[in-house]
């Protein structure tokens, strides 16, 4: 690496741009010449692998990391036997952390075989001081540690690591900076996620997200629309607008704008045929949004509306700012406006102090609403949150018993919901080859349900009409009709 390093030492600091994204493009350029030297020395291109843990936000961040690495000249590989491995971590529940620790050790064994290998840790876990301490102490072979606020700096951090040849740790407590116009990969050629806001201000008492993702900040509508137009020009037909709490979009902008207004603008972009969004907080879901959804030709007939608990007492302890009745009234209003809507939700079982009566309130809401599906989570104590200090943590055995009861209830209601379209023909976006059956494809309905049907892989990314012959619980078997 001699020549490149010698050259880098002659670089003048005044040449390095101070504004973003110019600064990062500068480092990407410098690293391109490093990559050329590597290719000459090794006789091959260097590979990278980004492993994502957790939610859609992390998945989107990983695409940005991949975009930067591809620009430098890395090529993607689908295993951790790569020259650069990044773990983009999640800390929303304890088991997410445990999984990551288990695997960092494995990366160490790979690095012993390939000493030039680089390992980076980023994402939500890194925003917790005790995690970073543990990595510094017990996993000294990690090269770069960064957080959720500075992922745009990957090129600069990699540069620093190569030049200094020691662990680079860069964690920010928070930020109000939103860096636009950096490269981003997308996993699919027909659908993509678009961030509309970052962070969360709600401080639900169980949740660590506001601590690791910082305060709420919205992207400017013109930046969002420009990205959607660019994606549409590249052939993307479905977009997912992403935010921890999309219903409070725009409140912090210099010229405030509502989420419903933003949706109206996104709807105008030619080429986009489906619009989805995640996640909605029930307390902020406006009548204006329901009206925009009802009249839209592009917004999908699916709403993810996390309820967390059906007990008003527990909801208060969770700091969710709505009651059981508020939630049910909201659902009634949504269904009255859009009878076809598919509703999905998140539920936590075993929040501190939860009693059998509280739990039965949750079951009651599940039965009354008739969710199309529900993600259920066992409460996980996150240090630093308000709920972590609460007494009356529910015994594990009790939680497991309720959890199983709830799963069963959800299965019953969601199967009944899914069944309602059997025997009809609906529009499907073809997503991938179905590995389960020879010659089968998998597509998605507007309401988010999956359909498997025979067809040619050339149809991937296109819309076809599919007759939904048989409902198999959570998916359909069907066939294309011309
Ligand atoms: N324990 C269990 N589930 C949690 N969630 C968030 N924090 C916790 C926690 N401490 C769940 C919520 C949220 C989803 C993304 O994760 O249901 O909606
Ligand atoms: Fe966590 Fe509540 Fe914010 Fe969702 S709204 S990220 S559950 S604090």
Q: What is the residue-averaged pLDDT?
A: 95
Give the helix/strand class: alpha/beta
Distance between the termini: 60 Å
> What percent of the residues sit in helical stretches (DSSP H or I)?
25-40%
Uncertain stretches of 5 or more adjacent residues: none
Strand order of the largest sheet: 2-1-3-4-5-6
Strand tally is 19
Rg, nearest Å: 24 Å
* Count, helices: 14
Ions, cofactors and other ligands present here are: 5'-deoxyadenosine, iron/sulfur cluster
Tell me the β content.
Answer: 15-25%
Shape designation:
globular
Q: Largest sheet, if any?
A: 6 strands, parallel
What does this entry look like structurally?
The protein is α/β, with parallel strands linked by helices and 482 residues long. 37% of the residues lie in helices and 20% in strands. The chain has 14 helices and 19 strands. The chain has helices at residues 2-9, 22-42, 56-72, 94-113, 129-138, 154-164, 209-213, 221-233, 259-267, 287-295, 312-317, 324-337, 356-369, 396-418; strands spanning 47-52, 75-76, 84-89, 118-123, 144-146, 168-170, 191-195, 197-198, 217-218, 238-242, 274-278, 302-304, 342-349, 373-378, 425-433, 440-445, 450-454, 463-471, 475-481. The strands form five sheets. A six-stranded parallel sheet has the order 2-1-3-4-5-6, with helices on both faces. A five-stranded mixed β-barrel has the order 15-16-17-19-18. A three-stranded parallel sheet has the order 7-10-11, with helices on both faces. A hairpin with a 6-residue loop joins β15 (425-433) and β16 (440-445). α2 (22-42) packs across α3, α12 (324-337) runs parallel beside α13 (356-369) and α13 (356-369) runs parallel beside α14 (396-418). The longest helix has 23 residues, at 396-418. The mean pLDDT is 95. The chain binds 5'-deoxyadenosine and iron/sulfur cluster. Residues 200, 202-204, 207, 209-210, 244-245, 281 line the site of iron/sulfur cluster.
């Amino acid at each position: 690496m001699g020549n490149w390093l010698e050259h880098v030492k002659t670089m003048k600091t005044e040449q390095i741009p101070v504004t973003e994204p110019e600064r990062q493009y500068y480092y990407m350029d410098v690293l391109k010449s490093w990559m050329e030297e590597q290719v000459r020395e090794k006789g091959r291109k260097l590979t990278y692998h980004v492993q994502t843990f957790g939610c859609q936000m992390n998945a989107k961040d990983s695409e940005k990391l991949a975009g930067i690495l591809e620009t430098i000249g890395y090529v993607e590989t689908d295993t951790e036997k790569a020259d650069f491995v990044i773990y983009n971590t999640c800390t929303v529940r304890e088991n997410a952390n445990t999984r990551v620790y288990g695997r960092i050790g494995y990366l160490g064994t790979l690095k012993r075989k390939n000493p030039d290998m680089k390992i980076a840790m980023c994402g939500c876990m890194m925003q917790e001081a005790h995690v970073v301490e543990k990595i510094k102490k017990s996993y000294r072979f990690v090269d770069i540690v960064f957080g959720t606020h500075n992922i745009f700096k990957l090129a600069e951090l990699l540069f620093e690591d190569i030049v200094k040849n020691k662990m680079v740790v860069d964690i920010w407590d928070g930020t109000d900076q939103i860096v636009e116009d950096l490269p981003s990969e997308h996993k699919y050629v027909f659908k993509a996620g678009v961030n509309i806001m970052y962070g969360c201000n709600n401080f639900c008492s169980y949740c660590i997200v506001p601590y690791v993702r910082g305060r709420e900040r919205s992207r400017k509508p013109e930046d969002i629309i420009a990205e959607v137009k660019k994606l549409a020009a590249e052939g993307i037909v479905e977009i997912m607008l992403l935010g921890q709490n999309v219903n409070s979009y725009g409140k912090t902008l210099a010229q405030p704008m509502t989420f419903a207004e933003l949706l109206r603008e996104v709807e105008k972009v030619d080429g986009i045929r489906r619009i989805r969004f995640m996640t909605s907080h029930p307390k902020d879901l406006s009548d204006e949004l329901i009206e925009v959804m009802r009249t839209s030709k592009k917004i999908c007939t699916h709403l993810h509306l996390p309820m967390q608990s059906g007990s008003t007492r527990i909801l208060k302890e969770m700091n969710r700012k709505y009651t059981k009745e508020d939630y049910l009234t909201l659902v009634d209003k949504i269904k009255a406006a859009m009878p076809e809507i598919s509703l999905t939700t998140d539920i936590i079982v075993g929040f501190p102090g939860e009693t059998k009566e509280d739990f039965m309130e949750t079951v009651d809401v599940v039965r009354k609403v008739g969710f199309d599906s529900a993600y259920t989570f066992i409460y996980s104590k996150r240090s630093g949150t308000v709920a972590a200090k609460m007494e009356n943590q529910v015994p594990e055995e009790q939680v497991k018993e309720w959890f199983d009861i709830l799963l069963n209830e959800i299965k019953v209601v969601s199967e009944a919901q899914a069944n309602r379209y059997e025997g009809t023909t609906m529009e499907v976006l073809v997503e991938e080859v179905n590995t389960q059956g020879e010659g089968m494809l998998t597509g998605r309905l507007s309401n988010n349900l999956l359909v498997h049907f025979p067809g040619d892989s050339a149809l991937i990314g296109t819309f076809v009409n599919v007759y939904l012959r048989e409902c198999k619980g959570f998916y359909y078997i069907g066939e294309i009709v011309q």
